[in-house]
Amino acid sequence: MALQSTGRISLSDIQTMFGGTNPITMSEYYNNNASGFTTGVTGIPNSGATISISHFYGKAKPSASSLYAFAAHTFTNAGATGRTGPIISQVRSAYSGAAWAQDTTNNYLNMTTQGIQEWKVPATGSYTIDVAGAAGGITGGITPGYGARMVGTFNLTQGTVLAILVGQQGVTKTDNCNSGGGGGTFVWNKSSTSQPLIAGGGGGGGNACGGTVGLNAPTTANGTGGFGSSTAGSNGNGATPGGSGWLTNGTVGLDSNNSGCQRPLEGGLGGAARAVYSIGDGGFGGGASASGQGCSNGGPGGGGGYSGGAGPSGDTACGSAGGGGSYNSGTSQTNTAGANTGHGYVTITPNFTVSAPGFSIASIANLVLWHNGYNIDGSNNSTLSSGSTISSWYNSGTDTSLTTTQSTSSAMPTYTQNGTVFSSGKSLISNINLNSGTYTIMNLFIVWKKTQSSNTLKWLWSQDNGGYDRTLIINTDSSLMVGRGDGGAEFPNYSFPINSVVVVNCEYNSSGQTGYFFVNNTSLTTFTNLSASGTTTTQFGSNGGGSSSIDGVINEVLIITRVLTTTERTNIYNALLAKY
C-alpha cells in the first residue's frame, strides 16, 4: 500500500508510512538523510534540494528483509465458540491458505495460552490493524449489543510477537433465557503489557424480556450499562459485576454466576454461568455470563473489553447489559461503535510489500538483460546527477554481450533519481533480439511511470518489422496494443495512471504457444500464434520517431529467457514494486 497519488497528504501520513520523529520536519525525509526513513524510495530528493509534500505522492516504504512473505491476514475465532478460545490446530486449519501459519516449529504462529494467538511480525514497517469485538448472545430474537470496530496504523518491528485474542459471541444456552456478553478483541505486544495496542469491546447479551436490547460496545475506554447496584468498568477495569477489562476481572454476579471471567493477561475466559441454570456463558474475551437462577430472573451478561460492560446485580431480567469499552493507540484512526454483529476478528495489513525472504532479482536464473535503476552507469549512479544525459545503460544481467545505448545526443534520455526520463525523440537502443535467434522464449519486465496524458501512439518498447511484432504501444490513454510477434496485436483496455509506478510484464513464447501480458501482476490478455522473425535491435521508450516516445520515466528493464512460474512472477513483481 502506498500513499495516495492525488489529493491531500499530511505530514502525519508521511510519518505513518516512513516512520519519523516528533515534531515532524520535512528535512528528516531527504533520501540521503542519516535517519534512513526514505532510503531506496525513488523520487525523493537528497539534502540541499527542495523537498515538498508533492514528492510523496504514490510512494511506499520499500520492503526490508523479511522473515516470511506476508500480505493482509484476518485472525479469527477459528470455529471456536463459547467461553474458551480455539486451540492451535484449529487455528492452523482455519488459516490453511497462509504458508507462514503452517510452520509447525511455531516460529511465526504460536499459542502458549489457549485462544491467544501469538504472531511474529515479519518485517519492520507500517501496518494497519483492524479489530472488532464480538456481539452479545441472541435470545428469543432480541437484538444483543454489537461489538465495536477499531482501526489504527502502527509502526511494528520485525521479530516482535503480538498477542491476539479474538473475542467470541456470548452464549445462549436456552432460547428465551438470558444470554452472555460478547468477548472483547485485543492485540498487544507480548513483551510490553501495560496497555494493549488496540482493543474492540464486546456487546451486551440479549435478555429474556422482549423489547429490551443489549447495549452496543462504545469506542471510548469505559464500559456502558449498569442496573440495580451494578457498575460498568472504567479506566481499564472490569465491571461490578460484569465483563472483564484490561487491568482487572469482572466480578461474580447474582446467584454466583459469572465465575472465572478473566482479563486477557490471565487467559481471557468468558464468565461461566452455573451449570444448573438455563442462562448463557460469556464469550471468550472476558464477556460476562448472564445471572440469575432461571429464564425469568437475573439478567444478561455485560461485554468484555478494555473496560467491562455491566451486568445485573439483582433480579432485573428486563435490564440492558452493557458493552465493553475500547482502546486505540494507533494513528489514522477509524472507530465505530456497535459495528460487529458476530464473532470478533483482527485484520493486519502491511502498508508496504513484504516479500519472501532471501529473494533477490540478481538470483533469477536466465536474467540475461537487467537495466537496474540503481546502477544505470555501472557505478551505482555515482557519476550521474539530475538531468545528465544517458548514452548507455549498464547491463547487470548475465549476458554481457547485450548492450543498450544511444549515440545521437539529441535522442538521449536524461537521468532522474534511479530512472531515465523519456520525452519527444528520446530512446535507448538494445542489440537484444526480441523476435528470433537465441532468445525466442522470454519474459520482459519494465517498471515505469507515465507523467502526462496523451492520445497519440507511444511505444514503451518496440521491435517493429513492418507489423506490430513484439511491441507494446500505448494506443490512447485507455487502450494498448500488445504486439504478438506475427504482425498482429491484442488490444486490451487499460489506462496507465499518471505519476504512479507500474510493473509491466510480457511473456513471449515460441510459435503456437500462449503468450501473456500483465500489468501489476494482473493478467490483461493472452495471445497465440507467435512467429519468430524480425530485426535484431530493440528500442525502449520509443519506436525511433519523436512523436512515438513515451512521456515518462523507465526505472527498470529485465529480460529473462525462460517461462516463469506464478510464484516467480509474483516474487519479481513484489521486489520491483518495493524498490520503486
Low-confidence runs? none
The biggest beta sheet, please? 8 strands, antiparallel
Overall morphology? elongated
Radius of gyration: 30 Å
Distance between the termini: 12 Å
Please report which band the strand proportion falls in: under 5%, 5-15%, 15-25%, 25-35%, 35-45% or over 45%.
15-25%
Write down the secondary-structure element order. Answer: HEHEEEEEEEEEEEEEEEEEEEEEEEEEH
Number of strands: 26
Question: What percent of the residues sit in helical stretches (DSSP H or I)?
Answer: under 10%
| H/I helix tally | 3
Task: Give the integer mean of the pLDDT values.
Answer: 86
Structural class: mainly beta
Total tally of structural domains: 3
What layout of secondary structure does this protein have?
Elements lengths: L10 H8 L54 E3 L12 H7 L14 E5 L2 E5 L4 E8 L14 E10 L4 E5 L19 E5 L8 E3 L126 E2 L2 E10 L4 E6 L16 E5 L32 E2 L8 E3 L2 E4 L5 E3 L11 E9 L7 E5 L9 E5 L2 E5 L5 E2 L10 E8 L6 E5 L2 E6 L10 E3 L11 E9 L5 H14 L1
Antiparallel strand pairs: 1-11, 2-3, 3-6, 4-5, 4-11, 5-10, 6-7, 7-8, 8-9, 12-26, 13-16, 14-15, 15-26, 16-25, 17-22, 17-26, 18-19, 18-25, 19-20, 20-21, 22-23, 23-24
Can you walk me through this structure?
The protein is mostly beta strands and 580 residues long. It folds into three domains: 1-62, no CATH class; 65-351, no CATH class; 361-579, Jelly Rolls (Sandwich), CATH 2.60.120. Helices cover 5% and strands 23% of the residues. It contains three helices and 26 strands. The protein has helices at residues 11-18, 88-94, 566-579; strands at residues 73-75, 109-113, 116-120, 125-132, 147-156, 161-165, 185-189, 198-200, 327-328, 331-340, 345-350, 367-371, 404-405, 414-416, 419-422, 428-430, 442-450, 458-462, 472-476, 479-483, 489-490, 501-508, 515-519, 522-527, 538-540, 552-560. The strands form four sheets. Strands 12, 14, 15, 17, 22, 23, 24 and 26 form an eight-stranded antiparallel β-sheet that branches.
